[in-house]
Write a structure and sequence with these properties.
The complex is a heterotetramer, with 2 copies of chain A and 2 copies of chain B.
Chain A lengths: L8 H5 L7 E4 L9 H10 L4 E4 L10 H6 L3 E6 L8 H8 L4 E4 L2 H13 L3 E4 L13 E4 L2 E7 L3 E12 L4 E2 L8 H5 L2 E12 L18 E4 L13
Parallel strand pairs in A: 1-2, 1-8, 2-3, 3-4, 8-10, 10-11
Antiparallel strand pairs in A: 5-7, 6-7, 8-9
Chain B lengths: L12 H10 L6 E4 L18 E4 L3 E5 L20 E8 L2 H9 L5 E4 L3 E3 L4 E2 L14 H7 L3 E5 L10 E2 L14 E4 L2 E6 L2 E7 L5 H6 L5 E3 L1 H5 L1
Parallel strand pairs in B: 1-2, 1-5, 5-8, 6-9, 8-10, 12-13
Antiparallel strand pairs in B: 2-3, 3-4, 6-7, 10-11, 11-12
The chains are: A alpha/beta, B alpha/beta.
């Protein structure tokens, strides 16, 4: 019988190894799987490559992994924010490598990773610093860059509700990077507020189908994300 | 362009937002960039339905929530609490950027550090910054049917932001269609920058003095 | 005020011109916008390029346009079925050109068209007749083909329920090619069973957001598709 | 291989479906191809949850509906009426093929016209046909973690379908992992075709006679 539920976040991340590539969902605090991130800071895997849109928006996001010296390489679109000091320090000392990708290119590269497309062309970032060194090609009279897929060994995602099979639905803009990251990792771990019986989620409203979710961990429902106005 | 030029007021930012909003047509889907451009949301003319997009995954952005009504799972691209209008929808970031990059937005209203007379835009990184913050800026400029800039005409130090060639890192080339500043509304055309409208009390020459690229008068302005 | 509703299918397709490219949703009879197809046979635009997964599955699908000599070129994955005789005849006489595409490549090319991606790489169809003449390139030690985006001047799609803005939801497997085709045309026309007030569809369950729909036409709700067992 | 060979019965198709179903593991996501392979759905061993995928856009395919209970909007990839199990989900064709092509299916069970000793598959077009019907076959063979064939060992005319090199148009090369026929279960390995199991009453030599490529015995078969 399918049962993807783990009893603790520690168990859910126990097998993560040094050097792994990790995709982390969320956009700022909303949709951030912060309990899984916290468990990983305890677990201690090092030399991680982390793919996440925001890096310093909240202290309990990827910033916590950076401060804990677990990250070797970062791919993101927005590496600034109130908790980015430790990142800046490590970039200057050369202990972390940073790749900035336009947000849409980042999302599309992850989508390509989940969809079996090794590479695609996009006009985004042509003639910019972020397009430097990339292969260029003209289609329909317009210049495009070749961009490569991103996949992860693990994805940490957050959703609102799951069933035993691993079907997921999200709350409002909590959705953000979570559904696409769920498709692109070998092992996708979803932190959810509620796990319901199979059949309780309408088949037409499921956003992430069960096939993309490997592990489920339930956390307290009150913690749905944070309003960032005061940070 | 120098610091000792006398100050020219022109539009205040809310007035400029109101002016820009007049050019958004009924039924348009529009993205308002982080920061200043979000002001435009408050000035959509009555009777027009403009559907606002936020790149973190929604269409139908509504007004700011009342104090105490904020929902941490309902935020805009600036991570500020917002509301959703009836008819609004949620989707993932990959769907949101497929929408942007697929050319479906009628307009994007963005801020700028610099814009060139050819419509090149620099908006994501200051020349000496350790880190840029590109977010969705490159996707929005490349993908939107129209790119409108919403900005102060000069920097706080009085330096021109409208230039012949951008010296700051570029967001995209040949992408800006129109520039709304506190002093004027300026079209970027094949033939160069054309001042379409002047803020009340502002003279063409005053705008030209504060612009590091040649400006032309639009026909409407010549008639005046 | 936004109002995308048209009073008749004839009005909704009135401006279609000879030589247009048309995407037609549906998988067999399910999700097939058959009223729009019927209106187009009346309207009479010719030399159409039609993109549709099935061509001869049902008589009131693309087969009707073929029999009516309105089609010059077809892109599809499954050009057979009980109503494919007219297609076969026209292929043999050379009046119709056929491009067979693997179903996933077809779907992905349309998705690329809607998402601003001019071309992408896929391993599907490598070393097959359908890959002949296509540019090949190796990624991660595996051969891939370069495939190009498909866009349409028009898309005919079918959905279950719409609101005035053009948001759509679908019934069960009626969804099929409809959401992706909605994204890839200059003008998307949706044939729906019901049009409700704005706000009546939950924002989290909307499948096709309003931005992708240009025209709505309401048809009788009882006709939701056809069971094909007896065809 | 010739028409006058005496008939060897082996498994009937429902029995073969039952045999194949034994190899589908608890929790697997599996696509059953149009036609014969759909039989497998009826023989999933009790206590196992196998989630069936249909490429027109669903996971969690259930049994055929009762007569009169068919829903025209609930069909499988063969356009036949089906049901959905609790826990099932609907999605678009593009999402369905992203799932297939992204390598997420544990197995695809497909039919075949021909299969080569190297695992090349021909299944979408007969050599003299005006039209092929590729559907999702090329995507499923390239994208699934395992490709199992479910087929009669020979054609109706008694011709071998398992051959050294396919002469029919290919679906994909080097893609088949295992072949289930009425006579045997055969693994496609780096070292060639290995008969893993024989149908009751069928001899290895009888299978070899009906196969146009060299077969080997698996260790299990040698022990017998």
């Amino acid at each position: 019988m399918i049962n993807k539920k783990f009893e603790s976040t520690a168990q859910a991340v126990a097998d993560m190894k040094d050097g792994a590539t990790l995709l982390v969902g969320g956009f700022g605090g909303s949709g951030l799987p912060s309990h899984l991130v916290a468990a990983l800071t305890e677990q201690g895997a090092k030399d991680l490559t982390v793919v996440s849109n925001n890096i310093g928006a909240v202290s309990d996001g990827v910033a916590a992994l950076i401060s804990n010296n677990q990250v070797r390489r970062i791919i993101c679109s927005f590496p600034v924010g109130p908790h980015a000091e430790d990142l800046i320090e490590r970039l200057q000392s050369g202990t972390i490598e940073l790749e900035i990708a336009p947000q849409g290119t980042l999302a599309e590269r992850i989508r390509a990773g989940g969809a079996g497309i090794p590479a695609f062309y996009t006009p985004t970032a042509v003639n910019t610093e972020l397009g430097e060194g990339k292969e260029m090609r003209e289609f329909n009279g317009r210049s495009h860059l070749l961009e490569h897929a991103i996949t992860g060994d693990y994805a940490f995602i957050k959703a609102h509700r799951a069933d035993r099979w691993g079907n997921l639905v999200y709350r409002k803009t909590q959705r953000n990077f979570n559904p696409v990251m769920a498709t692109a990792a070998q092992i996708t771990i979803a932190e959810v507020s509620e796990i319901v019986e199979v059949g309780e989620i309408e088949p037409e409203v499921i956003v992430t189908p069960s096939i993309y979710v490997d592990r489920l961990i339930q956390v307290e429902a009150q913690h749905e994300g944070r309003v960032l106005v005061n940070e | 362009m120098s610091k000792d030029q006398k100050e020219v007021m022109g539009w205040k930012m809310p007035e400029l937002a109101s002016r820009l909003a007049l050019d958004l047509e009924d039924g348009w889907f529009v993205n308002l960039g982080i920061g200043l451009p979000t002001l435009v949301a408050d000035y959509i003319p009555e009777g027009r339905e403009i559907i606002l997009h936020s790149e973190n995954g929604l269409l139908g952005l509504g007004p700011k929530p009342e104090a105490g009504e904020e929902d941490p799972d309902l935020v805009n691209a600036g991570k500020e609490p917002i509301t959703l209008k009836p008819g609004g929808s949620y989707f993932s970031q990959s769907e949101s950027f497929a929408l942007i990059r697929g050319g479906h937005l009628d307009a994007a209203v963005l801020g700028a550090f610099q814009v060139s007379m050819h419509g090149d835009l620099a908006s994501w990184k200051l020349p000496n910054a350790t880190l840029g913050r590109v977010g969705g800026a490159m996707d929005l400029t490349v993908g939107s049917k129209r790119v409108f800039l919403f900005m102060q005409h000069c920097t706080n130090k009085g330096e021109a932001k409208i230039v012949e060639e951008c010296s700051f890192p570029l967001t995209a080339t040949r992408c800006v269609d129109r520039i709304y500043t506190n002093l004027a509304v300026i079209d970027v055309t094949e033939g160069g920058l054309v001042v379409k409208e002047l803020a009340p009390g502002v003279k063409f020459e005053e705008v030209q003095e504060r612009t590091a690229a040649p400006l032309q008068r639009s026909e409407a302005l010549l008639v005046k």
